[in-house]
Amino acid sequence: MTREQGSLVREWKGSVAFITGGGQGIGLGIARALAKRGVRLALADIDEAALASGKGELAALTGVETYRLDVRDREAFAAVADEAESSLGPVDLLFNNAGIAPYSSLPRLQYEQWDLVMGVNVHGVINGVQTFLPRMIERGKGGYVVNTASGAGLVAGPNVLYTTSKYAIVGMSESLKHAAAKYGIDVSVLCPAAVATNILRSTDTLGSAAGLGQRAAARKSTEDYISTGLSIDVVGEMVLAGMESKATWILTDSEIAPYVKMRAEALLDAFPAAASGVS
């Protein structure tokens, strides 16, 4: 790290980044931002066509290796990590970004849906952390972890599956930031609002058999909302800016700010009067 105009600026060139969901969406936006700064890239994704496209685009800028990976598969995660570090060098930037955007009404909720959503959105992040953090700690040279959650991880909504998985990632990241600091490893959690991606299509690929998905009218409304979101390139640059400032939370806009305030105030109001010093 160096200091420039009074703020921390990361020395990106020479680093190696491992990005899950790296062939598309926010993961690709992060990869593009990193590639411009000379970071070598290991892109992991379940979509082989997206990986091929991403590598074709970014290989002219930096070293890129791609790996088909289902983030729920711990053994595959470890094997891919070994391959990536053998080809590119030690991974010091980890982006646990792969995820799905599920929906199920309460009457249709089944264990199969819970298992899929928690497997991808929560255990996929756990697998990334547990695969790479011991390596970073053993090398003793620090590192950075960015976990992708959502604004839904800060304020609860009616989508129970999605909200549960994203709250888990926010809590995990906040705790991990405290625990990893002693090893020189920084942690941020990305909590975006709408970003123009194909996440619903990706969710369909994994979730159709489990009965995930919205009715047509609601699905159209969700698609319209997502399509008006920020571009993946804007979000990618926001992520790197957040890392340079070592932000705990990387937020893409202020859409949910009033609701976060309402939640915080309601939580504080819920404490017994004695706890707040009121007699």
Automatic annotation (TrEMBL):
<dbReference type="GO" id="GO:0050664">
    <property type="term" value="F:oxidoreductase activity, acting on NAD(P)H, oxygen as acceptor"/>
</dbReference>
<dbReference type="InterPro" id="IPR057326">
    <property type="entry name" value="KR_dom"/>
</dbReference>
<dbReference type="Pfam" id="PF00106">
    <property type="entry name" value="adh_short"/>
</dbReference>
<protein>
    <submittedName>
        <fullName>Short-chain type dehydrogenase/reductase</fullName>
    </submittedName>
</protein>
<dbReference type="InterPro" id="IPR036291">
    <property type="entry name" value="NAD(P)-bd_dom_sf"/>
</dbReference>
<keyword id="KW-0560">Oxidoreductase</keyword>
<comment type="similarity">
    <text>Belongs to the short-chain dehydrogenases/reductases (SDR) family.</text>
</comment>
<feature type="domain" description="Ketoreductase">
    <location>
        <begin position="15"/>
        <end position="175"/>
    </location>
</feature>
<dbReference type="InterPro" id="IPR002347">
    <property type="entry name" value="SDR_fam"/>
</dbReference>
